[in-house]
Amino acid sequence: MLSSISRNISLQLVSEGSLEDLADARFPGQEFDILIFDVKSARESKEIRQVIGDIAQKIIFLTDDDSYLSKIKDFPSGQAALVRKPLTYHKFAEGLGLIGIHLRKLNCWEYHQCGRGPGQVEVSGLAGCPVGSETSTNAMNEGTMGGRVCWAIGGSFCSGEKQGTFASKIINCQDCDFYKLVHEEQGQYSESINSILGRMRRKNKI
Questions:
Q1: Best exposed site among 27, 37, 141, 179 by fewest CB in 10 Å?
Q2: Regarding the domain delimited by 2-96, which CATH topology (the fold level of the hierarchy) does it fall under?
Q3: What is the rounded average pLDDT of the residues 163-169?
């Protein structure tokens, strides 16, 4: 039962694009109490099980489809659980009353799996996106470079096409699922557009 889980917990959200991170040097020797998989983007449970091994005490699948119940059969009894949406990841954590939470938030290139993020272009062969190299916005909205303020960065690649300035693309950005996700996750702590552009102007003297 979830209520029996230790309250000093490490919590990790995993998307398909970051699944391999659990096995490489990004998390050397690290174990997690809970791993959360959004089953609309996670790989099949057999592959998940093969990659993560015993790195987590409990695996939780977020879903809005009961058919995904079959995904938990490949895990040892009691290791996997299923939680129905629509729970945001933060509300889910708050609902458990967890403290000391480690939650890795997705950057836009991870969410969209575009292959243009830092360290990805060497593999994908695609042109790099300015979002992944915008140092002035690093850590804003708890992201890497411009990965969680991408709507403010001109010349980004969205849907495979190079975009224009902030002013010309922001209306479309506001309809983007990732834009909505970031603002939902950050809530009242979401960086304002004035704050983002102000930092970029100071850094780049624009």
A1: 27
A2: Rossmann fold (3.40.50)
A3: 94
